[in-house]
Amino acid sequence: MDKLTLLAIVERGKGKGNFSCFATENIGNFGLAGYGSTAREAMEDIKVAAQESRVMAAEAGQDFPEEIEFDFRLDVGSFFDYYPLDVTATAKYIGINPSVLRQYVSAIREPQKKQIDKINAGLERLAHDLGTGLKMIDKPAVSYI
Q1: Are residues 18 and 71 in the same domain?
Q2: What is the layout of strands, in order, in the sheet containing 3-12?
C-alpha cells in the first residue's frame, strides 16, 4: 500500500478542551483516533496514531500504507475552535440566532441537518464574500484625503 486518504471527523465534546478526531474506516485491525484540548491538537494526534499504527503493523508483519492523508470534516464546535471567528458576529451574518449558535459551538445542543445546512451555506457565502477582491486600506484613512 502506498498512499491512502481517510475521512476523519473532528468533534467537540461537552466541556472545555474536549476534542476528538476519528477515521471513519479502519486499516486492517487498526482504528485511528486522536484527542486534544483543541481541534488542531486532536487532528495532530490522529496523525501520531497513524505513525504508531504503522510501526505496530510492521512489527506484526502486516501491510500498512506508507502515507495516510486525512480529509478532515469538522462539527460546529470544532470549526469555531479551529477558525478564530466571533460566534455572535458570524451567527448574525449567516442568519442564525447567536445564542443558538453558541449552544452548538459549546456542544450544549446538537444542530439538526437543516441547521447544519444553513450554517454551511452561510459560511460558504462568507468565504465567497471575503474572496471577492475587497481590500483593506494600506495606510491611515486620513492620508487618502
Answers
A1: yes
A2: 33-36, 19-23, 3-12, 67-74
Length of the chain: 145
In sequence order, which residues have a C-beta less than 8 Å from that of residue 13 and are 6 or more positions away? 19, 20, 107
Nearest 10 degrees: CA dihedral of 80, 81, 87, 93?
-30
Nearest to 88 by CA among 97, 75, 76, 79: 97
Classified as helix, coil or strand, 118 is helix
At 124-144, the pLDDT tens digits run: 999 888 887 777 778 888 887
Residue with cell 486492517: 28
Cell readout for 18 is: 474536549
User: Which residues span the domain enclosing 17?
Assistant: 3-76
Please tell me the total count of domains within the chain. 2
**DSSP letter at 21?**
E
Q: Are residues 16 and 41 in the same domain?
A: yes
Show which of 76, 95, 112 is a domain's final residue: 76
> Do residue 21 and residue 61 come from a single domain?
yes
Q: Which tens digits make up the pLDDT trace of 84-124? A: 999 999 999 999 999 999 999 999 999 999 999 999 999 99
Note whether residue 138 is domain-resident: no
Q: Is the dihedral of CA 135, 129, 10, 30 positive or negative?
A: negative
